[in-house]
Write the structure tokens for this entry.
Amino acid sequence: MATKGKGKKNCSISNPSRENLSEKIRKRAQELFEKRVKGNISGDALGDWFEAEKQVRSEMKK
């Protein structure tokens, strides 16, 4: 008989600051994507994510 959920961790409980950082990056990447599409600017989702991560981490240092 297997134990349900054994060995799994809930990231939002074990590390809430990391969860918050990921959510901020995700939101910023979405904003960048929408701006890029609206302005018919070339690019891709990975580039949006990297730029979002750069911006969010820079803001956190301030």
